[in-house]
Each structure stands twice: as C-alpha cells, then as structure tokens.
Amino acid sequence: MNQEVNEIAGSELPPADTARADDFLDPFEIRVLAVLAEKEALTPDNYPLSLNTLTNGCNQLSSRDPVMSISESSVLDILQRLMQRKLVVEVRQAGARVSKYEHRMRVKWLLEQDKLAVLTTLMLRGIQTAGELRSRSGRLHEFASVGEVETALQFLVDKYPPLVARLAKAPGTKESRYAHLLAGEEVLEQQAIADAMAGSASVLKGGSQDRIAQLEEEVSGLRRQMDDLMAQFAEFKRQFE
Asked: Is the dihedral of CA 91, 25, 160, 187 positive or negative?
C-alpha cells in the first residue's frame, strides 16, 4: 500500500490563499500535524519541534503511508497555514536561535491522549483496523485491548463534525476499518470504489476457477467415454480373429 508522494516543482502545494470547500486539510497539512503530535509523545525532551526536525519527520520512511518528500520551505508555508487555522502555534524559547512549533489538536478538538494517539496513527498510516491501530500506536498510548481502541474510535466517530469514519468491511475480511475525515469524505468514496473493484475481481477470479474446474471435469468425462469406446472396439475386433 505504500506509495511515494513527491512535490511538483513550481506548484508543489496549493497557495495559502486558495479557497477550499469546507474546512478540510490537504495531505501535506495532515502530515505536518501528525508528525508534531507523534514527536510530542515520542521525544518530549525535543518538543516543540524545530523546522528542520519537523521536516525530517515528515519525510521519514518508516511508519508513513504514503511516504512524502517535502522541502523545508514548503513545511514552513504549511505551518503558516495551520497557524492561521489555530492548529499550530509558534514557540519562541528563551535563548533559542530558531523558532519551534507545536500542534493544538488536543485543544481544538478536545482530545485526550488515547483519542489523539488513534487519530495521529490514522493520519500517519492511512486506513486501518482497530487491531492494527493498537499495535501501531503503542508508543503514543498503551492500549490494554482492542476494545479500548474501539472505544476511542467511537468517540472520534461520534464527534460533531466527526473526525473518523468506520468503513464497510473489505471483501473477504472480518474486521471493520477506520479512516480519518480531516481531508473530507473523498477518501471514503475512493475506498468504496477500490473495494468494489476488488470484489468484482474476486468474483471474476472465482468464476474463472469454477469454469476451469468444469472444463477439467468435462475432459475427464470425454476420456472415460473414449476408453469405453476403445474397449468395445477391441472386444468387437476379437470376434473376427
């Protein structure tokens, strides 16, 4: 499922003043926010983050889906947009030579650490089951059971507006999957189409296998008939010898 997302030279990110329907975030904004929340839990001694550290976290190859490549200047532009929306604040520490940044998701959406851990993991790694979220968010928050993860997910689903959605089960799977809604519901539509295509492919594959089995049975029947005819012919021939 991993795929790499690179910036497009000259127009890699939408301009800050671009009007967008509703109050959704683009994939780069989601990545910056998620990295801030992740590093707050993983490296509290180095939090808030400098621009350089934040950029490295955004471009990290592990625990990211999709993998991205974002320049420092682009991250700075993203931070400016997120600060305008009260999702990030700039922190100037006494004696520090560079500005640092921290997220405000916990305050803006009234999230305790368990809910924030689940949401952050969805933002960093895409659609997942509750079991996958439990195993992947352990360093952000230790869940005692999958049931605790599902409780946190339900809180995020029930918020108004909702931050997370439960997706229909994929063909051949038993567990429900979850996706964040920070980029809008387009991801749900895309996943529904992907699931439908996967289901159709499965049906076609299953149909092909059934047809092959039918043909093999017909060939076996023809061989038996041929053997019977040859035996009858041999018996008939012996009558004239």
From this structure: negative
Residue spans of the domains in the chain: they are: 4-184, 185-241
Structure tokens at 149: 């993860």
* Residue 12 DSSP class: S
Roughly how many angstroms between the first and final C-alpha of the chain, as a whole number? 73
- What integer pLDDT is reported at residue 230 of this predicted model? 65
Judge: domain 4-184, CATH 1.10.10.10. Answer: yes
pLDDT tens-digit series, residues 131-140: 999 999 999 9
pLDDT tens figures, 12-48: 454 444 444 458 999 999 999 999 999 999 999 999 9
The runs of H, that is alpha helices, within the chain are 27-42, 51-58, 72-84, 105-108, 113-125, 130-136, 146-158, 186-238
